């Protein structure tokens, strides 16, 4: 049996904080192939996947974008909304039909500032997500572009 991921909302935030956060959500849907955001764009919202999958990708000059991770139900799509200058570091595309909770980043940041305990819990969660995504990006890019055996085990 697998261990619950600390990056999924169900295990990352308490029931109280999940309820507060999802109380601010707007339900949205995306058909396959919809770009949620592009690398370098303004990060003014984020999503938590309810159903379906979203592929995170990174621009590779002279090549097709490299998918570095596929996100599913309960996972956070987007972390760049939390850190100035609020610019996306990856791109994201629906790889299957997606239903998600969408959040206004400025409103969530205001709620985090108003309640430091909630803010700390959100910071911790997004920090875990960020760390996991950066490792996933490194591993995937080494898989795709580095000479065989050049990466170090993690």
From TrEMBL:
Lineage top rank: taxon: Bacteria
Pfam families in the record: cNMP_binding
Cyclic nucleotide-binding domain mapped to chain residues: 9-78
CDD domains per record: CAP_ED
Official protein name in the record: Cyclic nucleotide-binding domain-containing protein
